[in-house]
Description:
alpha/beta; Rossmann fold; about 15% strand; globular
Amino acid sequence: MIDFSGTVILVTGGSRGIGAATVKALIIAGGDVVLHYGSNRAAAESTAHASGEDHCHLVQADLNEPGAATALWQESCAWKGQVDVLVNNAGVFAPGPVDGPDAEWSENWQRTLQINLIATADLCRQAVNAWRKDDVGREGGSEGVRGVIVNVASRASWRGDGPEYWSYAASKGGMISLMKTIARAYAHDGILCYAVAPGFVETDMAIESFKHDPALRDVVVRDIPMGDIAPPSDVANTICFLASGLAPHATGATIDVNGASYVR
């Protein structure tokens, strides 16, 4: 049984979808969670209330702003004096048509890379620097686990995405490469790093897309051998296992959660 008692976890983008399911699962397992949200305070409060408010601390940060990720890390550490696990889940999925105006193309790339990749890298940097100074690690590998990072990437990291989502696929591919680099560089310091690569997940964002295009769901499901879209809990449970430190020698791995729609 996974037990996060005494463990502080920062989950970015924790107010809805995969993030909210992850927050709930971590708190059920005994963890204390810093729930980061971008702008929707009501959704964040609702998630905290449903998950266990005594073990949930809300922090707002606009990760599109340079320096916001560093401030988020510092505020997160101030709550309990530490952060033991970092889950980089916050992200944007916005179209950038290749034949659109130059200014819109550039803005889409800059915003997507800033939120999905650069803010993730900033948080990973803060975590690695903090944990390398920490002499007391959780029980784990041969030298103990000092900290765990889980990056929520995407199936698009491997197979690419639609013609309007170059920036999204590139940013998620960058998260995988970032994860591999950290895993290789800092395993000897007791720092573990993993990625989860979901396909389509039953989130508010996906449901909204299906409302605009009712035929899209059938198209998506036909591509999934399991015959349905993954519930957020599938991804959340995978994140919890990786974050537990129970499989330290799996550091550097990416776990696919896509119903066998893309098998590597």
